[in-house]
Amino acid sequence: MNDETKYLLKKIASYAVVFTLVLWIILPLFVTFLYGFTTAEDYYNPDKIIPTTFTTQYIETILFTLGAWDGIRNSIIVATMTIIISFILGIPAGYAMARYIFPGKDTIKLSIVGLRMFPVIVMAIPLVVLYINLHLIDTLLGVALAHTAMALPFVILITSSIFAGVSKELEEAALVFGLTRLGAFRKITLPLTLPGLAAAAMFTFVMSWNEVFMASILTLNNRTLPALILSIVAGAGGGAAPDYYKFAAAFIMTLPAMVFVFFTRKYLVTMWGITLK
Amino acid sequence: MERRSLIPYLLLLPAIIYLLGFIGYPLIQAFYLAFTKDGALSLDTVRRALSDYYFWDALRNTLLFAAVIVPIQLGLAVVLALFMNRTFKGRDLGIYALIIPLTISDVAAGLIWFSLLSPYGFVNKLLMNLGITNTPIYFFGYQFRTREFFVIVLAEIWRATSIVFVIILAGLQMISREYLEAAEVFGAGYWTRLRHIVLPMLKPSIQSALIIRTLFAMQIFGIVLILAGRDIPVLAAEGYRQMVDLKDPGVASIYALIIAGISLILAALYVKFLRAEYLEVSRQ
Fold first, then answer.
1. Residues of B in contact with A260 (CB under 8 A)
2. Is B283 part of a structural domain of the chain?
3. Chain B residues lying within 8 Å of A253, measured CB to CB
4. Do A18 and B93 touch (CB under 8 A)?
5. Do A149 and B9 touch (CB under 8 A)?
6. What is the CATH number of the domain that holds B109?
């Protein structure tokens, strides 16, 4: 075998691998979307692998009769509150980690990394008891506060590495030219770190959007989308909803996530790179 | 800079107070719920938890899921990341496809795989029309627990390998080209470079990925409820049931504490056995 055929074979193999990968990820999504719009007759027709008649009826039922629309709204509200609270608390902490040297810094940083490993399930159950006393049970604020506890360690670590990426000299130069430290932060550091912070915000959003255990335990009437869908369709054996409702539900849950990945794909990889240094 | 300043502490204080309140307090409360009865120390709740019909099954299944899923994900992610770290046409498309599942929740992933494998699902219709089987293959239902287990593993690998992939790929991109080029100059082949340079330098990334994935595997919940219901009991789902259906916060706390305990032990083992050598050297 000469080098040219070897090179060609390698190239073909590469493309085969990429193609298989893309297919492996995309095909399940494609089938779900297709079946989410299938009529019941086509779905139960064993000869129709690819349905030919379509309806939005099941998606509409889930959205408007079974309350998924409220679930989406609740999820967005909870995720937005989570971003706001965890950024108000996390940005100063991340900035302190990036810019100051102080006794106990390593211990604090290690504790925060440790908290990141804390399973949310341990938090959820005692929180129910606390929330009943505080009248936070079944409120969106309650879920957002719990999601903040989950997201805050991430936000501190991510923002601290983002701030560390802006050189100290720029800020010091601003101080020399008469800006206060807060002014230097607002005029110099913040604008430079805005894209990174936006990516961190989106990551926080996704964490909250997908979380199901705490949302299920802390709410009953005001459920986020995953918690609501879980209560509608849980259990393949004794699931309450017919199959085609499940696919419609999957479509509703997945589409926003895919749109999100499309817009953040550039940041997702780099963000993990800097976070885990 | 300002070495003896209070400012950094003041900046950190709100976040630390919040975390102590929302993680520290529930942790203490969980121990209290689990180990007391009427205000006095008691193992009554522990006994109630251990004698539950589903307890040992749940513990065994959870560990089994973690033991099967996490190593496959790590192996697959390393191979994919090594492959995707080269430059070729279509690489961006491949990476994009691989990170799509990052934002798909376990509930959605469960529903997606159900649509493929249900009796009237895509796979069964395809197999029957190709003449490979005459009757649909049942993947779901109490009689088919082994298949349900297999489907959950498959769905988890489909959904959550991407986070491992992203972490490993980010780790690969941080390895300096110079090391590899130097090794190449001295005649090291691909496998030698992989074994002696790339993999050792990937250790911190592998460690992070393993810790994150093991942690979430121990909490496996939504995807199991969707695909298997209670056919395959797992710790988190049993904790949920104790809390929501049986209104027993004490037993639910024990389930949660067991999950936390096992996670911490495994994380400590990863930290101990995957120590990054070159980081140790630079610290001296």
1. 103
2. no
3. 104-105, 107-108, 111
4. yes
5. no
6. 1.10.3720.10
**In this structure, is residue B282 part of a structural domain?**
no
Closest-CA residue of A relative to B148 is A236
| Count of domains for chain B | 2
Show residues of chain B in contact with A233, CB under 8 Å. Answer: 111, 226
Q: Compute the count of residue pairs across chains A and B with CB atoms less than 8 Å apart.
A: 305
Q: Where are the domains of chain A?
A: 69-241
Q: Which residues of B touch A247 (CB under 8 A)?
A: 111, 114-115
Distance from CA of A186 to the nearest CA of B (A): 15
What global pTM score does this model have? Answer: 0.86
**pLDDT single digits (tens) A8-51:** 888 888 888 888 888 999 999 998 888 888 888 888 887 788 88
- Separation CA A234–CA A237 (nearest Å): 9
Q: Which of B211, B216, B205, B213 is nearest to B85 (CA)?
A: B205
The answer to the question of residue B279 being in a domain is no
**DSSP assignments along B95-151, one per residue:** HHHHHGGGG--HHHHHHHHHHHHSTTSHHHHHHHHTTS-SSPPP--SGGGHHHHHHH
Q: Give the CATH number of domain A69-241.
A: 1.10.3720.10
Give the model confidence (pLDDT) of A137-167 as tens digits. 999 999 999 999 999 998 998 888 888 888 7
Tens-digit pLDDT profile for residues A200-245: 888 888 889 889 999 999 998 889 999 998 888 765 444 567 788 8
Please state, as a whole number, how many other Cβ atoms lie within 10 Å of the Cβ of residue B247. 9
Token duo for residue A209: 């959007």
